[in-house]
Q: What sequence folds into this?
């Protein structure tokens, strides 16, 4: 207990240098496990406290504290292995509270001494877990210094040694602590700075010296560094503040921020703020550091910045506290507490009459407020004398002067002197002042100038009806001399007259109609027509004026349907269409709409007409009409019954999206265009004559006796079976009259179709390869059916170039074979057919669609003639009497061929 008391005395001595009634932060007292009632615990040094005014109290009701600082147990208290803590509070006369914590720690050595007669000591875990050790930072003196002895219960059974590791020994920072291997005494080797490291945790081990084995569990111990007030508070941030001038007392200026590195929650970091200068104008809260104003007389125009010194001191401002000072700059911001003032009064200005947009005066002002702010920028107002708007006043942005302009010319004869009143104010309103905006008078003198004549009024209006006769007097427009106030020697002229409708008398200014006035002219706008006149005096000075002529309307126009295109009715199946007929009349009411629409007697009940609105009617079909353009005669009159019959073209057509699919086109042709049209007509007429010549030409009837062999020239093939192939034959001497469009006509045999196909059955007759078919007309692709049939070698050899004649076997008179003229004709026609058919082979099928084979469908029954095909009569192949009695089939064919 003596060592404990000595430690307490040392702590009290260290903490004795304190302010009035200063208590240490904490005390550690070793006590037995059971503290009996009335036991003295410890003594608190209260030498610096006023015993009469200081109130002491203990938070634990098991203890009490006397006025001399002695702490005594009021009842028996059992202290646990973890110890017990209570606090002592001291209240001084100012109301400030001081607090100290008292830690009761069980004394294990005392426990062992009391139980020394019970044999071997047992290991108590609670002894091997001591409370946190405390050391004071920055302690001067000799080192090493003992902190506390660490002991294990295994010392009673083993010969042990102690060791430890961790920060402060073999980890950063090294060399701060040491542990005696034999005694277990923990020592500090040098000063420790709490602001660098505030606690250390080391692991202690106890080991048997003989076996090297640990005899107890590793013990973590904590060493906390107690704080001393070794750091002065410092400012945080810039000490720059601002406040409007003329602010009320108590207006917040700014907040001073400070910090302290010492332990939080102690008096070492309790900062007190104080103003060392400027306290006559400003104040600072001692605990929060808020700066406020103390007066409402701060004037920026007198002093715009104030420098005040602020002190910050810890220990809540106690004498032993550490402090710092800084200079705070407080800037006064501007308010508009000064109106602009004029430098002199009154102001005078001179201006010539009739001048405009001229600067006549500069008005300087002074303002004490901050330059180039709304509190300083001036704004000038003309409060009196400018009722006619002859003046304006602006502000020069550089000099802040008022600039007075005359905007409309003044008349010396009417006003020789004008007095204006001008007020100067700021863009911002006045604040915190009793001053008012100032006004001054400005005298403006108007000097005389020799002026030109002036019309009696700048603008004069006359009313006239349209279409009045030329020479009609409209009115007169005169001018006077401003000085003499008479019209002597003044001449009048037109300056503008867009339609040349008016004549002006040079001497009197009379206005007469020169040409027909038409209200519907584009020169008339909203019923008004303007001309400009000029008056010239003897000195050639001029004056101008405007004449407005209001043109009254007459009923000189009739409603009409706009031309240019026909109205369109889209044809719909089973429905009769209609269309809206709209009329226009440029006249005004009552000579215009509403219009009356009616149909004339030429309607014939085809159309009906019903009103649609004031200017339109609905024209509706009553009967169905053909497609095309129909002219409808309509009578349209205005409200006064004036109107005429009109032809309304209406187009009836098939439509798509409301528009006709196709429309008639009208083209105007010149002389060359007409000739271009007549030339195809002439060619067509010539072709018609040629065709008529061919059709009226008839062949002589020929008879073909039957029963004799044809001599290989013609072979009977009127069978469905395949025909026989024959050798080359001699060309017969057959008279050919004409060859027209690929057809051999006038032959004394049934004309045949030549081909180069393989044997097949067509139309009831056989066709052999490179043979001839009895078909009447030679048609087909030249390359496929007639290739090489009329080669020049054919005629010299009198054979058909490898082909066969196939058909009804008839005999040909031998005289034809000996007729050279016939042979020449045959040869000529053959060349023509050869060239034509070769040419056809190079063209597309579409151009000569009539010259190729067509497959026709069955036309059906009912015709008296039946089919006109040459091969549709299946009579006796050997009986040719049918050639003399041709039936209605061939008569029908003959009728077709003989028509032009």
A:
């Amino acid at each position: 207990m003596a060592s404990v008391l000595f430690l307490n005395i040392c702590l009290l001595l260290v903490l004795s240098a304190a302010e009035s009634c200063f208590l240490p932060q904490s005390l550690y007292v070793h006590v037995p496990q059971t503290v009996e009632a009335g036991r003295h615990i410890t003594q608190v040094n209260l030498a610096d406290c006023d015993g009469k005014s200081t109130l002491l109290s203990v938070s634990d009701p098991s203890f009490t504290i006397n006025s001399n600082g002695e702490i005594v147990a009021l009842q028996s208290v059992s202290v646990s292995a973890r110890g017990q803590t209570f606090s002592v509070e001291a209240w001084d006369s100012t109301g400030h509270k001081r607090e100290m914590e008292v830690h009761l720690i069980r004394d294990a050595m005392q426990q062992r001494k009391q139980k020394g007669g019970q044999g071997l000591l047992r290991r108590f875990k609670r002894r091997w877990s001591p409370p946190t050790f405390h050391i004071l930072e920055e302690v001067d003196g000799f080192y090493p210094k003992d902190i506390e002895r660490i002991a294990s219960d295994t010392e009673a059974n083993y010969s042990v040694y102690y060791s430890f590791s961790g920060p402060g020994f073999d980890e950063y920072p090294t060399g701060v602590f040491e542990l005696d291997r034999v005694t277990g005494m923990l020592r500090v080797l040098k000063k420790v700075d709490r602001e660098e490291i505030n606690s250390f945790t080391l692991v202690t081990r106890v080991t048997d010296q003989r076996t090297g084995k640990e005899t107890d569990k590793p013990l973590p111990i904590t060493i906390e560094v107690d704080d001393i007030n070794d750091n002065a508070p410092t400012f945080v941030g810039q000490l720059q503040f601002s406040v409007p001038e003329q602010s009320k007392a108590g207006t917040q200026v700014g907040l001073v921020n400070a910090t302290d590195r010492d332990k939080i929650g102690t008096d070492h970091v309790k900062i007190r703020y104080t103003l060392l200068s400027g306290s006559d104008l400003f104040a600072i809260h001692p605990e929060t550091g808020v700066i406020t104003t103390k007066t409402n007389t701060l004037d920026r125009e007198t002093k715009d910045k104030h420098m005040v010194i602020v002190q910050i001191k810890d220990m809540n401002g106690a004498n032993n506290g550490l402090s710092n000072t800084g200079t705070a700059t407080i800037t006064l911001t501007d308010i508009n507490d000064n109106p602009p003032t004029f430098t002199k009064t009154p102001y005078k200005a001179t201006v010539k009459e009739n001048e405009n947009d001229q600067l006549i005066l500069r008005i300087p002002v002074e303002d004490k407020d901050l330059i180039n702010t709304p509190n300083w920028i001036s704004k000038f107002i003309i409060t009196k004398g400018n009722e006619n708007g002859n003046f304006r006043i602006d502000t020069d942005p550089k000099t802040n002067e008022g600039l007075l302009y005359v905007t409309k010319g003044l008349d010396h004869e009417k006003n020789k002197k004008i007095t204006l009143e001008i007020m100067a104010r700021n863009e911002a309103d006045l604040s915190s002042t009793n001053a008012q905006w100032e006004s001054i008078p400005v005298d403006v003198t108007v000097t005389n100038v020799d002026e030109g004549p002036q019309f009696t009024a700048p603008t004069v209006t006359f009313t006239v009806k349209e279409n009045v006769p030329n020479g009609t007097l409209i009115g007169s427009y005169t001018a006077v001399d401003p000085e003499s106030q008479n019209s002597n020697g003044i001449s009048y002229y037109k300056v503008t007259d867009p339609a040349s409708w008016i004549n002006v008398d040079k001497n009197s200014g009379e206005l007469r109609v020169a040409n027909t006035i038409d209200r519907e002219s584009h020169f008339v706008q909203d019923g008004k027509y303007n001309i400009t006149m000029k008056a010239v005096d003897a000195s050639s000075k001029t004056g101008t004026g405007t004449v407005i002529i209001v043109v009254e309307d007459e009923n000189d126009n009739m409603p009409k349907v706009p031309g240019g295109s026909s109205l369109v009715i889209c044809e719909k199946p089973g429905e009769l269409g209609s269309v809206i007929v709209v009329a226009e009349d440029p006249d005004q009411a009552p000579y215009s709409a509403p219009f009356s629409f009616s149909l004339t007697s030429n309607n014939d009940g085809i159309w009906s007409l019903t009103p649609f609105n004031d200017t339109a009617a609905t024209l509706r079909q009553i009967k169905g009409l053909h497609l095309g353009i129909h002219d409808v005669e309509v009578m349209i009159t205005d409200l006064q019954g004036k109107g005429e019959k009109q032809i309304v073209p209406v187009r009836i057509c098939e439509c798509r999206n409301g528009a006709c699919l196709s429309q008639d086109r009208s083209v105007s042709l010149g002389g060359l265009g007409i000739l271009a049209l007549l030339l195809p007509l002439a060619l067509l007429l010539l072709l018609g004559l040629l065709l008529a010549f061919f059709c009226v030409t008839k062949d002589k009837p020929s008879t073909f006796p039957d029963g004799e062999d044809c001599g290989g020239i013609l072979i009977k093939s009127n069978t469905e079976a395949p025909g026989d192939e024959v050798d080359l034959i001699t060309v017969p001497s057959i008279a050919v009259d004409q060859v027209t469009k690929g057809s051999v006509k006038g032959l004394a045999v049934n004309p045949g179709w030549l081909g180069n196909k393989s044997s097949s059955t067509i139309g009831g007759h056989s066709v052999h390869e490179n043979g001839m078919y009895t078909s009447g007309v030679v048609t087909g692709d030249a390359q496929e059916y007639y290739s090489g049939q009329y080669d020049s070698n054919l005629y010299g050899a009198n054979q058909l170039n490898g082909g066969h004649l196939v058909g009804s076997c008839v005999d040909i008179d031998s005289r034809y074979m000996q007729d050279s003229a016939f042979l020449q004709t045959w040869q000529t026609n053959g060349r023509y057919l050869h060239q034509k058919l070769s040419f056809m082979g190079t063209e597309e099928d579409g151009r000569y669609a009539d010259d190729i084979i067509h497959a026709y469908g069955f036309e059906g029954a009912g015709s008296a003639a039946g089919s006109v095909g040459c091969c549709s009569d299946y009579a006796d192949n050997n009986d040719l009497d049918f050639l003399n009695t041709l039936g209605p089939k061939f008569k029908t064919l003959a009728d077709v061929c003989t028509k032009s």
Q: What stands out?
A: Residues 573-660 form a domain with the Immunoglobulin-like fold (CATH 2.60.40.60).
